[in-house]
Amino acid sequence: MKNTPLLKNFLILSLIIFLFSCSKVDQPENPKVAKLKLLPGFEAEHLFTPSDNDMGSWVSMAFDHKGRLITSDQYGALYRLEIPAIGSDSLTPKVERLNIRSSGSDSLLLMGHAQGLLYAFNSLYVMVNNRVDEEFPVESGLYRLQDSDNDDQYDQITLLKQLKGNGEHGPHSIILSPDGKSLYVVSGNHTDAPEMDAYRLPSNWQHDNLFPHLTDPRGHAASRKEPGGWIAKTDPEGKHWELISAGYRNPYDITFNRQGDLFTYDSDMEWDLGMPWYRPTRICHVTSGSEFGWRTGNAKWSPVYPDNLPPVLNIGQGSPTGVLHGKDSDFPGKYQDVVFAFDWSFGIIYGIHMKPDGASYVGEREEFLSGIPLPLTDGVFGPDGALYFMTGGRRLDSDLYRVYYNGEESTKIETPSLTEEHKLRLKLEEFHQSPNSEALDFAWEYLGHKDRFVQYAARIAVEHQPVAQYANKVLSEADPIKKIQGSLALARQGNQAHRDAILKGLVGIDFDKLSADDKVNLVRTIEVTLARFGAPSGVLKGQLGDYLIAQYPSDNDALNFTQSKVLAFLEVPGTIDKTLALLEAEVTSDASSMTGTATDGSDLILRNLQYGMSIAKTLSSVPPAQHTYYGMVLSDLGSGWTPELRERYFSWFKKALGYQAGHSYIGFINNARKRALAYVPKNKFDYYNELSGNALLTESGNDIAEAIRPEGPGRRWQSDDIESVVNSGLKGRNFENGKNMFIAANCKTCHTVAGEGGASGPDLTQLGTRFSPEDILKAIIEPSDVISDQYASSILILKNGQSVVGRIVSEEGSSYKVSQNPFAPDHLR
Questions:
Q1: DSSP string, 499-561
Q2: Which of 129, 311, 581, 728 could be stapled to 170 by a disulfide with Cβ–Cβ 3.0 to 4.6 Å?
Q3: Nearest-CA neighbor of 326 among 339, 345, 314?
Q4: Residue 811 to residues 3, 814, 815, 817, 819: CA-CA distances in angstroms?
């Protein structure tokens, strides 16, 4: 990889990390603070370790009206802390477990398992996320705790809304609205959206995707349906609920900025890595009635589709947790207008600087704080303006920290004024409730607006009006852009009787005169119409097919993707030939969402080996996203095949099985392969089954069959076992089995024996002549104990705050070349 001028600004931090695990280095007095990478002027204090005090692993927090911090163990109780002031001689907080009893009763009602906490309206709001059992028989839902007798203990518990869902994709955070009058809550895609009193996003959501549907081959979220994760608003008593936004995978937290705009940090599906439907972790601007297109399996909507909104920033791989805004901080001015986003997997707090962009924003990320390891869970700004954050989750060791600013930068801030497009969007969003006689005339004009967020808000405003009031208006509209957007509204809110009129109107638009984006919007509107109402017959079907095939393919991947699945659904003649040509064409650009992210995947590999190795394997042999997409499209096309076309198509599957990607990649390819095989003549099944790579697969079909695989049961060896093993005389050793283990456990990826293997780690060929059996066993059991400088990795810190983790392979003056991927050590940064 080419060196950039930024590399000349490296300051090398002498924290050494082994390529596959952390080594021991000299640390200052408090290693928990020393491992944090802080920006200049910021200081950190370690306050408490709940896991060392039998208080579990903390995942949520909030300050109460007396400045005390309330926290929750992920699988346990609530705690209340009195925090010493910044710089105190003793930083140990006073901690009490909240023993919550019902008024007038001595019985203990345990309240905890909270993934969201908020103190407001003289109450503690608790979002319980729990699978009911005997130890904690409390249902998931939003609870309100109150102190009815003013003894500073909560004795009144009110369930405001029971929620059906639990676990890491269950109900999550609660925050206060900017006007201080309402609550906003967020839930992941394993939480059913309850019946609401009002819907800013119309509730007739559907699958709306003609891409041949496959659920995750490993079963994740296979039964979960739209709308996915959701965000809702309610009053302090929980009496009136309004859906604000949906279509997320698993956003854990939400936050408002100074202008009253809402943001969240949505998760990726890491098993989809390297596939065309993969969506990286991303910062989303949560506008009224917004939809972000999550659908299960391979059916996730493209962010370019007009019926959902794009993120303001794609981050990359990770596990989003806490989100908060700097408006309540005592940080320098530029950080008081930043969205702070926590990544649990890779231990990074991103600072997202939001720049107004029309009716929305464009985000620029900065690495505000990081550590290895640092499993971040939640954060909040305290009354002192400091950032309090926690690590833990999944029963990991948990810690509480405080970060404050002690530099010389000014804390004054100038909040940018709202753009005209922003004001217009807010005006349109006023019509996202009940029908309004003024809405249609006002919103219709803005269906043709060039700002995507304005255009989206206008269409949602139209959809909230009675269909009878705008159906004819859509069909008679002469402006092609308004006609496309109006037709999309009618397809989403109309019925079967509107189908043919919608399609006739769309094929009457001059395709060549549309912009690239509007071409995608037109074909997407056709797709939604067909997905909801089915294909037309007769002359109209032929006209529709002729209209689309004449424009296919183009030089636009997004347009080709959308056209290909619509053409396949309609079984238009010529679709197979043209799509096979795309399938076999050389790919000059990556159409997957792995590109264009703020964080380079290679920068994450060595921060967390559990997740980083999946990224490393994928980056070493990324499947072309375009080919995967077209291969899937053709899998459900039963007619139009010739023996020559089938030969080419099934040969592609075998090639596709040779790539590396997320854990579900092979299963997705195999399930598409099996679907395609269902259409071949019975007497040719065995031939095409073999041609397409069946022999390469395991029995489950979700993995490639390795020549050598680990066999169980395994054993967790300890250093204390070494003496007895050596004293036994090392009898019964099987050197062939040892060689197989070396291969099966991926040791050869980094180590060489007798000329075979990788070079990221030490050559082990003469190991037995240089080390004793005790030394070798010790190094196998505790590989991080002693690391050679030759094979260690360094953390390099750029002046822009970004950190790069990898092995320095060359240093020339102020330029460095860094290897970050043990599966592709020659790929250099």
A1: HHHHHHHHHTS-GGGS-HHHHHHHHHHHHHHHHHH----HHHHHHHHHHHHTT-S-S-HHHHH
A2: 129
A3: 339
A4: 12, 7, 6, 7, 12
Contact 202, 434 (CB under 8 A): no
Burial class for 106, CB neighbours closer than 10 Å (0-12, 13-18, 19+): exposed
Q: Pick the closest to residue 267 from 173, 189, 201 (CA basis).
A: 189
Whether 818 and 808 have beta carbons less than 8 Å apart is answered as: yes
Backbone angles phi, psi at 417, to 5 degrees: -75, 160
Structure tokens at 344: 């649990």
Write out the two tokens for 128. 């319980």
Chunked in runs of 10, what are the mean pLDDT values of the chain (829 residues)? 35 32 47 96 98 96 98 97 96 94 58 97 98 90 96 94 97 98 98 98 98 97 97 98 98 97 97 95 98 98 98 96 98 97 97 97 97 97 98 96 96 90 98 97 98 98 98 98 98 98 98 98 98 97 98 97 98 98 88 60 79 78 94 97 98 96 95 98 98 94 76 76 76 74 68 64 66 74 65 72 71 75 64
- CA atoms in the 13 A half-sphere facing the CB of 202: 25
Longest pairwise C-alpha distance within the chain: 90
Query: The pTM is what?
Result: 0.88
Write the DSSP symbol of residue 659: S
CA distance 56 to 194: 31
Q: How far is CA 158 from the centre of its chain?
A: 33
